[in-house]
Amino acid sequence: MNIRGKVIVLEGVDGAGKTTQLEYLRSYLSLPEQRERFGETVFVHEPGGNEVGEKLREIILTYTMDAKTEILLFFASRNELLQKVVLPLLNEGKNVIYDRFELSTFAYQVYGRQREDLRDFVLSLSQEIVPEHFVDYVFFLDLDVEIAKERDQLRDAKSTRFDLEGVDFFNRVREGYKRELLRYPHAIIDASRTRGEIRDELIQGVKRVLEG
Fold first, then answer.
1. Distance of alpha carbon 192 from alpha carbon 137, whole angstroms
2. Taking the model in full, what pTM does it have?
3. CATH assignment of 7-211, among 3.40.640.10, 3.40.190.150, 1.20.1050.10, 3.40.50.300
4. Would you tell me the crossing angle of helices 145-153 and 167-180 to the nearest 10 degrees?
């Protein structure tokens, strides 16, 4: 009988260095000795991750819409990725590392947009779509929003409508993360340090989760 793989999520406000750290982590876990030790680890991102999800991602990141519509599209993409990609991988004993998961929906769509009235709506969708105790661990890269915005502006990437939000929005997102993190096994990583220091702490944390 296959043993279910582990689910690890990396979260953080835009500009906190999540993409860079995921690449470090991917390189480390792809080494032959780490694959032998921990098994295969697959990296996925939200929204997106498969054909339907990527179509929804394009819509979500491009068009302004009603708050509930935005939330529903995120969960539609989440469900597609879960059912078509992630659950089969876990059942094969493979580990999955998410670049964002449902915490982002709470942080951005509920707190960032000042729609705390929709928190129960998001929670009910989560309970319907996401299996109970699905996430084994969350690592949150925490960084002052002013610094994160400065770093984000240096990225060579196409801007989305979320990138155009102001500092107040991202401060609310950051606080929303910290509130909702309490519902998960988690670690908060100080992302104001050097890339190497963050990398080392993250890798050690991920190793502990995979070994546990």
1. 21
2. 0.93
3. 3.40.50.300
4. 120
